[in-house]
Every structure is written in structure tokens, then in C-alpha cells.
């Protein structure tokens, strides 16, 4: 990793534990020993937990699956070896070898979480170090799986976005600049624009799905699960993560699942400036990442990617079951629906041909880099659209913002309206709709057209623009609830509280028509569709879950 990163954070990334600190953590640990040359852990393999060195030294190195090994740091007495993945027993991202005989303490993941909670000040120092080590591995660009191909190829960007949104380190190699990588592509018969992935254990995947990639790098557990959870949360956006943090911190056995990544749509927000406590704003990814670590700290099990296929309510009142798309079933006493909403697609011909090939539904640093000094079009008039427009204006030459209505006032916060008006390279086009998309599906979008209405007259304009960002709202992710009796409104959102009260069922404010099933965030009918509101509902629902569990 870059020397300046290590130098600026080394005192927090690699703290030295005192004799007193080690004495405090001994009740959570067991003694272990390793001879010189022994391997303590290896990238891609599930580690035993956090090691605290009592004597000897250990070399930490990282390898990229291509045979390249980079030294990271050498740990000695009083230092510990782990990063944030060890909170939940995830595979190691680096290798550790004993440089001499080593005596150490081993703290397994469940005991590590107990230590962090029981010893608050020591736990804070350890947690900060674990997080900073993961951040440094991401920033180094040399850890984790290797993605080989053309940097702007749609499928490579798809995989890169998946790993980035899940906070997983990865390394991108442009095959045009690396003969070894080019030979590997040819050896595996990769077609033009088709990426190759090399996992830490050396396994090679040709243009994998996100699910296949996740299994290769150990992100997701594929074993059968028969335990009974107290609470199962479907969706790891702000509402779901808030519920996970509060429920797990209060002693409930909690699992959270999401089919894509943590953070939901809010995780794609470049900057959230109206969330309480962050006067200078915070990116959606940063906010969601903190909540994700916090949920694991308290013992919530986060399963990503894991897609809910159906909800079985036949034993409601005793047990509920969520069937996953891979066929497995998860059992729980209660369920919180936090599945949010999926991106809405405007009715424009050929839209599906260019999704991921010039058309995206978020605006991250990856997309900003790709459209640097280019013209872009952004469609939408909500807060997410406004945040994206302001963010993209810092990179793109010109941002054409298309909205159907006469202004932004009905759908956007005033601070964003003011900021958009102050950006000289954002051009707001009201009463305007996207009408046509042109290009070769293999190469991507090359041109588009829009129609504007002014003074009763309509005119169409065509531009050679290759980047289109769509922020036109979302539809609730509730198809998986069909057949279980959860009542939806006419738009497909989950109805709760007084709206579903019957003579036999008087639900709590956030409880659905099926006892023990709750709904929070964007998926719930009547929710405010704001990050703050979603987080509040997630916390509020946990209190109602406690009341429900007390009854059964």
C-alpha cells in the first residue's frame, strides 16, 4: 500500500497493546503457538480469528492471484493481526507467516465481538484499526480478486461495482498493458470485452455472475441453515441495517440478507447533506459502510448476496420461513421486510440493450471517472437525482438534467435546487422527456434524443452523448411476498398498522397483515422515502418485534 497512507494512519492501523490491554483481553482468548515458517492464515481461506502476538514476529503479505506478492507489515509482540472481516469469520485478505517461533493469543470471531462490546475503550481502538486496515487494502488496489479485461468494458464495470459497493478489495488489470494478463485471457478463451477474474485461491472465472464471484471469494456461506433466528431482516439498506444494529445490540439472534450489496439505493448517493449529525454531509457508501460494520460488531449475521424468493407464512405466530433463490430456507420467529425498491425504467425503446453500456442508475466514483470531461444526461427530479447531478458536475464537462415537470420544487429539497442553480455546467431542462437511444449494443450508447415542450410547442433534439444516468424513481421490491397474505396497496407497497387492522389482528404501527411480519423504509406504504426516516423506522420496528416475541 502507498507509504503516505501507512504513515498517516499507522498509529491507528497498527496500535501497540500494553501489558494491561493484553491482560484485559486474555479472558476472551486461548494461547496458541507456531514454529518458524508456519502459516497462520492465508488469503482466501477462512481464518480462526484475531491473533495477538506475545513473542516472535509475523510477516503480513498480500498476493493478487497472479503470483505477485507484496509485503504489507511485520507484526511483533503487543500487536494484533486481523481486519474487519474477522468480526464475522470471513476469509482472510492477506497471508501471515511466522518469521520465528511465535507465541500468541487467539480470539475467535464471536469472542472478538464480545471483547469489543465488554471492553469499550480497548474495543474502540481495535475496531478503528480493523476498519482502517480494510480501507487501506481497498485503496492499495493490489489485494483481493484480480479483474482482468478492458477497464471500461460493461461486465468488468459490473463486477467492479459489485465489489466496491460491498467494500471488498480488488485489483483491476488492463490486459492491453499487461502481456501476462493478455495471455491469461487468451488461454481461457475470453471474447472481446469479456472479463476474467482470478480469485485469491487461484480459481479463474470467465465473466462470472455476482453470485458466482461472491462464492469464489468466500463472501457468502452456502451451507444449509436450520437454526431458528429471532429476527430475519430482508434488505440491507438504511432501514434494514438500522434494525439489525438495534436488534443485535439488544441480544436478539439476527440475520440480514440482501441480493446485491449493503446500503440500498442510499449507498449510491454521492453526498447526503440533510442527515442529522453530519453538517458537512456524508456519502451514502460511507454511512452504509459504518452501519454494516456496526451490525456485525453486535453479532448480526449479514448474508450478501442472498436473494429472497418467497415468504412462507403458513406457521405465522410460531415460525416464518424465507426461501432463498438458491433453494435454501431460513427460519425465524419474526421478519422485517426492508427490501426497498428497484430502479424504475422509463419507457424508451432499446433501454435494456444499453443498461451497463452507457446507461446506469447510480453515480459513483467509477462512473464519474468514465465520464470525465464529457457531456452527460441525467433524468430525474428527486433528491437522489439532485445529489448525482451536483456530484457529476465536478467531473463532467456538461450535465443536461431532464425533468418532466415545470420545475424541481415539488420533488427536491431546496438546498439541492439552489446548488444546482449555482453550478454553471448543469443545464436544467424542464418539461423534457427522453425519447430515443442509439448505438451498437456491444459498444454501448452513442447518441440519444429528448423532446421538450415550451409554450405549447414541442421540439426534439439529438445529441452524441454516451453517458445516461437514470434517477426516475423506484418500484417496491415485493414480488417475493406473493402468496403469503401480506397485504399490499395498489402500487405494491406493504401496508401496515391501522391500514390492515381486522377483528382478529390488531397490528403494531409497522406490523403487516401477517402477525410477526413488519415493514420499514421505502418498501412500506406511507413511508417518507428519506434516509433519516428509514433509519428511524428500522429502530422503531425492533421495539415492536420485542413486544411480538414477548407474546409468543
TrEMBL record:
<dbReference type="InterPro" id="IPR023753">
    <property type="entry name" value="FAD/NAD-binding_dom"/>
</dbReference>
<feature type="domain" description="Cyclic nucleotide-binding">
    <location>
        <begin position="13"/>
        <end position="133"/>
    </location>
</feature>
<dbReference type="InterPro" id="IPR000595">
    <property type="entry name" value="cNMP-bd_dom"/>
</dbReference>
<dbReference type="InterPro" id="IPR050097">
    <property type="entry name" value="Ferredoxin-NADP_redctase_2"/>
</dbReference>
<protein>
    <submittedName>
        <fullName>FAD-dependent oxidoreductase</fullName>
    </submittedName>
</protein>
<dbReference type="InterPro" id="IPR014710">
    <property type="entry name" value="RmlC-like_jellyroll"/>
</dbReference>
<dbReference type="Pfam" id="PF07992">
    <property type="entry name" value="Pyr_redox_2"/>
</dbReference>
<dbReference type="InterPro" id="IPR018490">
    <property type="entry name" value="cNMP-bd_dom_sf"/>
</dbReference>
<keyword id="KW-0560">Oxidoreductase</keyword>
<dbReference type="InterPro" id="IPR036188">
    <property type="entry name" value="FAD/NAD-bd_sf"/>
</dbReference>
<dbReference type="Pfam" id="PF00027">
    <property type="entry name" value="cNMP_binding"/>
</dbReference>
<keyword id="KW-0285">Flavoprotein</keyword>
Amino acid at each position: 500500500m502507498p507509504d503516505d497512507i501507512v504513515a498517516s494512519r499507522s498509529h491507528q492501523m497498527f496500535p501497540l497493546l500494553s501489558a494491561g490491554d493484553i491482560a484485559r483481553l486474555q479472558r476472551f482468548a486461548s494461547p496458541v503457538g507456531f514454529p518458524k515458517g508456519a502459516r497462520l492464515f492465508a488469503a482466501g481461506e477462512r481464518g480462526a480469528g484475531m491473533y495477538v502476538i506475545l513473542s516472535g514476529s509475523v510477516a503480513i503479505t498480500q498476493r493478487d492471484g497472479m503470483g505477485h506478492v507484496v509485503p504489507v507489515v511485520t507484526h511483533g509482540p503487543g500487536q494484533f493481526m486481523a481486519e474487519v472481516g474477522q468480526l464475522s469469520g470471513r476469509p482472510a485478505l492477506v497471508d501471515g507467516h511466522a518469521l520465528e517461533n511465535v507465541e500468541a493469543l487467539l480470539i475467535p470471531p464471536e469472542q472478538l465481538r464480545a471483547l469489543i462490546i465488554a471492553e469499550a475503550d480497548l474495543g474502540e481502538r481495535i475496531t478503528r484499526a480493523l476498519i482502517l486496515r480494510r480501507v487501506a487494502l481497498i485503496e492499495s488496489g493490489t489485494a483481493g480478486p484480480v479483474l482482468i479485461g478492458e477497464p471500461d468494458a460493461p461486465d468488468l464495470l459490473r463486477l467492479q461495482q459489485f465489489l466496491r459497493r460491498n467494500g471488498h478489495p480488488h485489483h483491476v488489470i488492463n490486459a492491453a498493458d499487461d502481456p501476462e494478463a493478455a495471455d491469461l485471457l487468451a488461454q481461457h478463451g475470453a471474447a472481446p470485452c469479456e472479463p476474467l477474474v482470478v480469485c485469491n485461491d487461484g480459481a479463474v472465472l470467465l465473466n462470472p455472475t455476482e453470485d458466482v464471484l461472491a462464492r469464489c471469494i468466500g463472501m457468502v456461506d452456502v451451507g444449509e441453515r436450520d437454526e431458528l433466528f429471532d429476527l430475519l431482516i430482508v434488505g440491507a439498506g438504511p432501514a434494514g441495517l438500522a434494525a439489525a444494529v438495534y436488534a443485535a445490540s439488544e441480544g436478539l439472534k439476527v440475520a440480514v440478507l440482501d441480493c446485491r450489496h449493503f446500503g440500498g439505493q442510499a449507498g449510491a448517493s454521492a453526498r447526503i447533506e440533510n442527515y442529522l449529525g453530519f453538517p458537512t454531509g456524508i456519502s451514502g457508501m460511507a454511512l452504509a459502510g459504518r452501519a454494516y460494520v456496526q451490525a456485525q460488531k453486535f453479532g448480526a449475521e449479514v448474508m450478501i448476496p442472498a436473494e429472497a424468493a418467497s415468504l412462507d407464512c403458513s406457521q405465522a405466530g410460531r415460525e416464518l420461513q424465507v426461501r432463498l433463490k438458491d433453494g435454501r430456507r431460513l427460519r425465524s420467529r419474526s421478519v422485517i421486510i426492508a427490501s426497498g425498491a428497484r430502479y424504475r425504467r422509463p419507457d424508451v425503446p432499446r433501454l435494456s440493450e444499453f443498461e451497463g453500456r452507457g446507461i446506469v442508475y447510480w453515480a459513483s466514483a467509477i462512473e464519474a471517472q468514465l465520464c470525465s470531461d464529457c457531456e452527460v444526461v441525467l433524468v430525474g427530479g428527486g433528491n437522489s437525482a439532485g445529489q448525482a447531478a451536483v456530484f457529476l458536475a465536478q467531473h463532467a464537462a456538461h450535465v443536461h438534467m431532464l425533468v418532466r415537470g415545470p420545475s424541481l420544487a415539488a420533488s427536491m429539497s431546496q438546498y439541492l435546487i439552489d446548488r444546482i442553480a449555482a453550478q454553471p455546467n448543469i443545464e436544467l431542462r424542464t418539461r423534457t422527456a427522453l425519447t430515443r437511444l442509439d448505438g451498437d449494443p456491444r459498444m454501448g450508447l452513442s447518441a440519444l434524443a429528448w423532446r421538450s415542450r415550451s409554450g405549447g410547442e414541442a421540439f426534439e433534439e439529438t445529441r452524441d452523448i454516451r453517458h445516461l444516468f437514470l434517477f426516475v424513481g423506484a418500484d417496491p421490491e415485493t414480488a417475493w411476498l406473493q402468496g403469503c397474505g401480506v397485504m399490499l396497496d395498489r402500487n405494491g407497497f406493504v401496508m401496515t398498522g391501522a391500514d390492515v387492522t381486522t377483528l382478529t389482528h390488531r397490528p403494531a404501527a409497522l406490523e403487516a397483515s401477517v402477525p410477526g411480519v413488519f415493514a420499514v423504509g421505502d418498501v412500506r406504504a406511507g413511508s417518507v422515502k428519506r434516509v433519516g426516516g428509514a433509519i428511524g423506522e428500522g429502530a422503531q420496528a425492533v421495539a415492536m418485534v420485542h413486544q411480538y416475541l414477548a407474546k409468543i
